[in-house]
Design brief:
This protein is an alpha/beta fold and about 300 residues long. Helix content is about 45%, strand content about 15%. Strand 6 (about 140), helix 7 (about 145-160) and strand 7 (about 165-170) form a beta-alpha-beta unit. It is globular and about 60 Å long.
């Protein structure tokens, strides 16, 4: 799957991923009104609204981008109907030939970790049959429990030719409370990066490992260090746009081949119509505003990469 992601990035010339993280407040009133008329102001109504919102954004942007990243918590808050909207979103994005990164941040050990891995990336045995559940292409994983928590995911990825993005240095302000702690003079995130490189060495595609890393856009100097620690790992970079990251900050997350990183923007794209810059589109044309935000993001990142060549 990392080969597909790399090829789609080359084809689109867009090293970006759209985070499909819909809060109900992001959904325009006309979408909510139609959903509530059909299902009432219920969990089912909310789930229908976010599904229709997602579908419109995917339709408007799918030929420009290689991948999407739905954050499962935004769907889980609406219970079982929300998970149904998550599944519809994953399936629809696959129909549009997009790579789907399930932002699920799972992390456990033993049979629990195996069940998470099977549920999101593999197949579960049901009687005499094997069935795929959520069936994302990649999943984000928390490494806090060590190799015991990662190995079941790696095993499923090897079998299914899918991939992981392991949390190494996250973009939130308090990440340093643990991730920056020095151990024998070296920050914890470097040790995690070394383990990602180690886990990935046995799970390689043509040029890059199936085992990638999450490194926030808000810490560009750390990104520069971790790029060297994990030269064969793709880096998923959250924190662009709404969290303050911009293209010029991100050039060191990429390798000299211009690959090796994919930058996420969530509300900066899906709620673009709420920004002054894209207000001209209005809520009626929210998906066109999202498309314009994607085009601007691609230009920003590619312009920054060209400037350092």
């Amino acid at each position: 799957m990392i080969n597909k992601l790399t090829e789609k990035i080359k084809k689109t010339n867009a090293p970006i991923v759209v985070g499909l993280d819909p809060m109900l407040d992001y959904v325009p009133e006309q979408i909510k009104k139609a959903a509530f008329e059909q299902y009432g102001e219920t969990l089912e109504g909310a789930a229908e609204a976010i599904w229709q919102f997602n579908k419109a954004i995917v339709d408007a942007t799918c030929e420009l981008i290689p991948a999407v990243k739905p954050q499962i918590a935004m769907y889980e808050q609406f219970g079982v109907p929300g998970l149904g909207a998550f599944q519809k979103t994953v399936d629809y994005c696959h129909k549009k030939d997009l790579v789907v990164i399930g932002d699920v941040k799972r992390g456990d050990i033993g049979s629990t970790s195996s069940a998470y891995a099977v549920g999101h990336l593999g197949k579960v045995t049901v009687g005499s049959k094997s069935c795929a559940a959520f069936d994302e292409d990649f999943a984000t994983v928390n490494p806090y429990l060590g190799t015991d928590g990662i190995k079941p995911f790696v095993d499923v990825c090897r079998e299914e030719k899918k991939g992981l993005f392991i949390l190494v240095k996250t973009s939130n302000p308090s990440s340093g409370e643990f991730q920056d702690r020095l151990i024998d003079g070296k920050p914890l995130y470097e040790y995690v990066g070394e383990k990602v490189a180690e886990w990935g060495a046995d799970h390689m595609s043509d040029s890059y490992s199936y085992i990638g890393a999450v490194v926030g856009a808000t810490y560009p100097e750390i990104g520069k260090v971790l790029r060297k620690v994990m030269p064969k790992s793709y880096i998923l970079v959250p924190g662009y746009g709404a969290q303050g990251g911009k293209g010029a900050d991100l050039v060191h997350y990429f390798n000299e081949d211009g690959l090796g990183a994919i930058v996420n923007s969530s509300r900066g794209i899906i709620a673009a119509y709420k920004q002054e810059k894209y207000a001209r589109f209005g809520a009626e044309h929210f998906a066109e505003a999202s498309r314009a935000a994607v085009e601007d993001m691609i230009a920003d990142i590619n312009g920054a990469l060209q400037a350092v060549k």
